[in-house]
Amino acid sequence: MPEIGSEHRTAMGIQLLQGTAGMRFRPVLRRMETDLIQALAMFFFSNLKQFMTDSEWVQITGKGGEVKPVQITPEQIQAKVFFIPTGISE
Protein backbone atom coordinates (compact mmCIF):
# COMPACT_ATOMS: atom_id res chain seq x y z
CA MET A 1 0.00 0.00 0.00
CA PRO A 2 1.44 3.41 -0.90
CA GLU A 3 2.32 5.94 1.73
CA ILE A 4 -0.21 8.57 2.70
CA GLY A 5 0.22 11.61 0.45
CA SER A 6 2.18 9.77 -2.25
CA GLU A 7 -0.87 8.60 -4.21
CA HIS A 8 -0.27 11.23 -6.86
CA ARG A 9 3.08 9.68 -7.74
CA THR A 10 1.60 6.56 -9.31
CA ALA A 11 -0.14 6.28 -12.68
CA MET A 12 -3.41 5.32 -11.00
CA GLY A 13 -3.13 8.24 -8.60
CA ILE A 14 -2.55 10.68 -11.45
CA GLN A 15 -5.58 9.29 -13.29
CA LEU A 16 -7.65 9.74 -10.15
CA LEU A 17 -6.54 13.36 -9.80
CA GLN A 18 -7.24 14.08 -13.48
CA GLY A 19 -10.70 12.56 -13.23
CA THR A 20 -11.49 14.65 -10.18
CA ALA A 21 -10.28 17.82 -11.89
CA GLY A 22 -12.33 16.94 -14.97
CA MET A 23 -15.50 16.69 -12.89
CA ARG A 24 -14.95 20.21 -11.59
CA PHE A 25 -14.55 21.60 -15.10
CA ARG A 26 -17.46 19.71 -16.69
CA PRO A 27 -20.14 22.41 -16.06
CA VAL A 28 -17.81 25.11 -17.36
CA LEU A 29 -16.99 23.11 -20.48
CA ARG A 30 -20.65 22.29 -21.13
CA ARG A 31 -21.57 25.95 -20.89
CA MET A 32 -18.71 26.83 -23.24
CA GLU A 33 -20.08 24.29 -25.72
CA THR A 34 -23.57 25.77 -25.69
CA ASP A 35 -22.75 29.47 -25.34
CA LEU A 36 -19.67 29.71 -27.53
CA ILE A 37 -19.19 26.80 -29.90
CA GLN A 38 -22.86 26.33 -30.77
CA ALA A 39 -23.35 30.07 -31.35
CA LEU A 40 -20.21 30.22 -33.48
CA ALA A 41 -21.38 27.28 -35.60
CA MET A 42 -24.74 29.00 -36.15
CA PHE A 43 -22.93 32.21 -37.15
CA PHE A 44 -20.79 30.45 -39.76
CA PHE A 45 -23.77 28.47 -41.05
CA SER A 46 -25.74 31.70 -41.44
CA ASN A 47 -22.89 33.24 -43.41
CA LEU A 48 -22.64 30.12 -45.54
CA LYS A 49 -26.35 30.25 -46.35
CA GLN A 50 -26.04 33.89 -47.32
CA PHE A 51 -22.83 33.86 -49.37
CA MET A 52 -22.41 30.31 -50.77
CA THR A 53 -22.29 30.31 -54.59
CA ASP A 54 -20.68 26.98 -55.58
CA SER A 55 -21.41 23.45 -54.42
CA GLU A 56 -19.08 22.12 -51.73
CA TRP A 57 -18.24 18.82 -50.04
CA VAL A 58 -19.02 18.52 -46.33
CA GLN A 59 -18.65 15.67 -43.85
CA ILE A 60 -21.85 14.49 -42.20
CA THR A 61 -21.78 12.36 -39.04
CA GLY A 62 -24.66 9.91 -38.83
CA LYS A 63 -26.43 8.47 -35.81
CA GLY A 64 -24.06 5.52 -35.58
CA GLY A 65 -21.02 7.81 -35.68
CA GLU A 66 -20.18 7.00 -39.30
CA VAL A 67 -18.78 9.93 -41.26
CA LYS A 68 -19.57 10.30 -44.94
CA PRO A 69 -18.82 13.07 -47.44
CA VAL A 70 -21.81 14.75 -49.07
CA GLN A 71 -21.83 17.36 -51.83
CA ILE A 72 -24.26 20.19 -51.17
CA THR A 73 -25.47 23.04 -53.36
CA PRO A 74 -26.59 26.51 -52.25
CA GLU A 75 -30.22 25.48 -52.81
CA GLN A 76 -29.88 22.48 -50.49
CA ILE A 77 -28.46 24.48 -47.60
CA GLN A 78 -31.60 26.60 -47.10
CA ALA A 79 -32.77 24.62 -44.08
CA LYS A 80 -33.19 25.11 -40.36
CA VAL A 81 -30.45 23.38 -38.43
CA PHE A 82 -29.52 22.90 -34.79
CA PHE A 83 -25.89 22.24 -33.91
CA ILE A 84 -25.10 19.94 -31.00
CA PRO A 85 -21.43 20.25 -30.08
CA THR A 86 -19.87 17.12 -28.61
CA GLY A 87 -16.48 16.08 -27.39
CA ILE A 88 -15.43 18.71 -24.88
CA SER A 89 -17.60 17.87 -21.90
CA GLU A 90 -17.72 14.13 -22.57
UniProtKB/TrEMBL annotation:
The molecule here is called Uncharacterized protein
